[in-house]
Specification:
about 210 residues, binds FE2/S2 (inorganic) cluster
């Protein structure tokens, strides 16, 4: 936590982010400040228009008093960290099995056609990358754009999203099949009734462990 603005000419936390970073560090015991590394890198990436530059790696290493390689290990392991510039709207397309089986291949082709290669920033400031499971497989296929998830997508939905972003319009996050959060699409599929829950729980030795 000893880096000052003068010591790093290329990157330093804004006043607001410096105070947020200090809050993150204070969550950990003394001597374990390095445990805040993911939050600190995330703040730095946000401040730097969505990507982690080599200067940020240096800065964060000094900030947390960690060897540079430890910061590199984290920054290169998680796909949430971008190691090259991204567009103002950065698409992370899930290519893992449930999304692949639900049509992510077609979404990927469209991203190629509309934006270009992965990690390329288009003239209209869009970029995309294929990532592993985004943890929302029940609403596959999923694309994350900046901080929000876009779910149950088909090619037309994605084309409309791209067109709207290009026109500077607001886009709707969440399910594109009007699903309520991750509830079943078939409205006839319902949750257990209170009677059914009680019947199941009667046979349990410890609630929540076995049906
Ligand atoms: S496989 Fe795509 S969100 Fe899990």
């Amino acid at each position: 936590m000893s880096v000052t603005k003068k010591e790093n000419k290329d990157f330093s936390f804004s006043k607001e982010n410096l105070s947020l970073a200090e809050c993150e560090i204070n969550k950990y015991p003394k001597g374990r400040e390095g445990s805040a590394i993911i939050s600190i890198l995330w703040l730095a990436q946000k401040q730097n228009k969505g990507w982690i530059s080599p200067e940020i790696i240096d800065y964060v290493a000094q900030f947390l008093d960690l060897p540079k390689i430890r910061v590199m290990e984290i920054a290169t392991f998680y796909s949430m960290f971008n190691l090259s510039p991204v567009g103002a709207h950065h698409f992370q397309m899930c290519g893992t099995t449930p999304c692949m089986l639900s049509g992510s291949g077609e979404l990927k082709n469209l991203l190629h056609e509309e934006i270009g290669d992965q990690n390329y920033v288009s003239k209209d400031n869009l970029s995309w990358v294929e990532v592993e499971c985004l943890g929302a497989c029940c609403n596959a296929p999923i694309i994350q754009i900046n901080d929000d998830y876009y779910e149950d997508l088909n090619v037309n939905d994605l084309k409309n999203i791209i067109d709207d972003l290009r026109k500077g319009k607001e886009i709707k996050s969440g399910s594109y099949k009007d699903r309520l959060t991750s509830a079943p699409l078939d409205k006839n599929i319902r949750m257990f009734t209170q009677d059914e829950i009680e019947k199941i729980s009667k046979g349990r030795k410890k609630p929540g462990l076995e049906a």
